Amino acid sequence: MEWAEDNSDKLTIPSVGNPLYTSLTTSTERVFLNARYQVPTKCSAACRGFRFGATLPGLTAGVLGIYGNVLTLAWLGGLGSFVCLVYLIFVILQGTQATQNMYLYLYAFTLVLCFVLWVMLCVYLSRVGAV
Questions:
Q1: CB distance 5 to 35 below 8 Å
Q2: pLDDT tens digits for range 38-55
Q3: What is the pLDDT of residue 4?
Q4: What is the chain's mean pLDDT, rounded?
Q5: 67: buried, middle or exposed (CB in 10 Å: 19+, 13-18, 0-12)?
Q6: Which pLDDT score, from 0 to 100, does residue 1 have?
Q7: For residue 69, which of 114, 110, 125 has the smallest C-alpha distance?
Q8: Regarding predicted confidence, which is higher, 47 or 123?
Q9: How distant is the alpha carbon of residue 97 from its chain centre?
Q10: Residue 109: CB partners within 8 Å, gap ≥ 6?
């Protein structure tokens, strides 16, 4: 393996880890580590030894739980907005026969929907911090 002279200090065991260093130094391919495209690879011994192992099942369960919460928020927001829009069109089509109570019910339902979505979003965000 040949190294460009100005890059000889870039590929070392502390910077890339022993397995990668061994693999690259025994290769017959020509390697150039140009400073413009260099990816920082400095990593501590604990970082190089990290394995997902027991972390992955918990991470997967957390992501699936978050997906379920987001899906619930999306469905509730979409269906609630659709009901509000249909009722708004109904009230507008009533024209002069629409009463103030109709507009009040529309306004109240919209506020309740916004409040429920806001509370659900707050609960969801509090759970995301725990994941």
A1: no
A2: 555 566 666 666 666 777
A3: 47
A4: 76
A5: exposed
A6: 45
A7: 125
A8: 123
A9: 48
A10: 83, 84, 87
Q: Length of the chain in residues, anyone?
A: 131
Q: What pairs with residue 3 in β-bridges?
A: 31
pLDDT of 58 reads: 77
Q: Minimal CA–CA distance to 73: which of 38, 124, 17? A: 124
- Find out whether 2 and 11 touch, Cβ atoms under 8 Å: no
Nearby residues of 36 by Cβ (< 8 Å), 6 or more positions away:
none
Contact 106, 88 (CB under 8 A): yes
* Tokens 């260099």, residue located: 38
What predicted TM-score, i.e. pTM, was given to this entire model? 0.49
| Residues 97-113: b if buried by 16+ CB within 10 A, e if exposed | eeeeebeeebeeebeeb
Domain coordinates in residue numbering, the chain: 5-48, 55-130
